[in-house]
Predict the structure.
Amino acid sequence: MQNLLEGEAEAIARKAIEMAKDGDMAAIRVCMDRLASIRRKDPIAFELPPMDKARDTVAAVAAIERAANMSAPRTAPAFDDHAVAAAGA
């Protein structure tokens, strides 16, 4: 079963993308989840402030949070279930 799926992975991926482009919400979700998981694994480069004392960890955590928020994938409003439903899809 694994070998059969591996041989068809590209065709399955292309079909999922095609279905997503046609507005299939389940296919859109699968594609977006895959894109988001790839982004989550990417390293984030940022500088930590000096940490000499325990209280300096607050600034360090804030720097980490800023870096994570800046690199977080943004879902386009068109992919939001409510926006698609409002559009009549």
Notes: DSSP finds four helices and no strands in the chain. The chain has one domain: 2-86. The longest helix spans residues 2-21.
